[in-house]
Design a protein that fits this description.
The protein has 14 helices and 13 strands. By secondary structure, the chain is of the alpha+beta class.
């Protein structure tokens, strides 16, 4: 008998053996699939969010300059712009106006108010993100009230609701004109929230940042790479927290799988004894049990990965979104771009498939080395 034909016959017998105990094996595969799906969902969602953040921040300014007073961010005099522009290597400098607004009237949501470079609406008109519109129940041409810094009530007409396709970055966003922003927050003319600058040579970004800190000691330059590392650390921490929560379920499955794999029933031991009496070698029995472990673990792994993929990229990861998104009130509705890291799938494979496949061989080897007559009479 050829080697291929031999393996095919062993695999056929393995499949028929699994079908004879279909209830027990189906329960194991169901639990196996569920655990793999949970772990894979956490990994896929964390990696997809990290990738989305890197795409969003790809066009972020090379350096952001903030002014600090007593360790807290403060408004920056516009005179700083000219001093930064004089630094060699700086190609563009721009002062920004932005801030946060706590809306106690609508569920205590926090809005991000930004003055864009070009705003198509006149004073008194704003553009809001889909999350702001949904939270306040307001639509286009409706009035949205804001409490100004001096306690007065200001109302602005909604001229536009930003596209839901950009909800990841704009759900809590309010675009407002410069005069309205300054009157709402009491920001005097000649002051900005921070300063952004671009550098001609990307290799000189760190050097320019050091020069800014030397020229303006009360400022804190933040380079784009630092922002990316911060987001990466945040998502890694949140993903690690989620996996730690799931560690209990994973540990329970490991105990269950170990007990299932190392505790052969008397029926299985008698089956091995009969096979040995019919001429099967110990190596054939081990190959049969190896195929059995591969069939259960690999099919459960593939099913779990497919379920995790559908859960994250088609069902918006409804189980894990509140933990990993990080918004307190305004949860943006968005669909992540499908992205699966080969390294994560490989790691998950070696953590779930390989251990179970290996432990199925140990009790089988022990039963296969016992005298067949003793196994069939006593069950091993």
């Amino acid at each position: 008998m050829s080697r291929i034909e031999r393996q095919r016959n062993i695999l056929d017998f393995t499949l028929s053996s699994l079908l004879r105990r279909k209830g027990k094996n189906a329960a194991l595969a169901l639990v196996y699939t569920f655990i793999v799906a949970l772990l894979a969902s956490g990994l896929f969602f964390t990696e997809a969010l990290r990738r989305e953040a890197s795409i969003v921040l790809k066009d972020a300014p090379a350096i952001i300059v903030q002014r600090t007073v007593a360790g807290r961010q403060a408004l920056v005099p516009e005179a700083y712009i000219d001093r930064i522009r004089a630094i060699r290597g700086v190609s563009a400098v721009h002062g920004r106006l932005w801030g946060y607004y706590f809306d106690a009237a609508f569920d205590g949501a926090n809005y991000t108010l930004v003055v864009p470079d070009s705003f198509p609406y006149e004073a008194g008109t704003i553009a809001v993100g889909s999350g702001v519109a949904q939270n306040s129940g307001a639509g286009v041409d409706n009035l949205l009230p804001f409490r100004a810094h001096d306690g007065s009530l200001l109302t602005y007409r909604i001229g536009e609701i930003l596209s839901a396709e950009s909800a990841l970055a704009s759900a809590d966003l309010v675009l407002i004109s410069e005069p309205d922003f300054r009157s709402l927050f009491g920001v005097a003319a000649g002051q900005v929230s921070d300063i952004t600058l671009e550098v001609r040579n990307p290799k000189e970004i760190a050097t320019v940042a050091r020069k800014v800190a030397d020229i303006l000691p009360d400022t804190r330059p933040i380079v784009r790479d630092e922002i990316l590392r911060t987001y990466d650390a945040v998502f890694s921490w949140r993903g690690g927290l989620l996996l730690a929560i799931l560690a209990g379920a994973a540990a329970a499955f490991v105990i269950f799988a170990w007990d299932r794999a190392t505790g052969l029933s008397s029926e299985e031991r008698k089956e091995i004894g009969i096979l040995k009496a019919l001429g099967w070698e110990t190596s054939d029995v081990l190959v049969m049990k190896l195929w059995e472990g591969i069939v259960i673990s690999l099919s459960s792994f593939l099913a779990g990965v497919l379920l995790a993929y559908a859960h994250v990229f088609f069902a918006s990861s409804s189980l894990f979104a509140p933990v990993l998104k990080g918004w307190s009130v305004l949860y943006p509705e968005f669909r992540l771009t499908p992205f699966v890291s080969a390294a994560e799938v490989t790691t998950l494979f070696f953590l779930t498939v390989v251990p179970y496949t290996v432990v199925t061989i140990i009790p089988s080897w022990h039963a296969a080395t016992i005298d067949p007559d003793a196994v069939m009479r006593t069950g091993g």
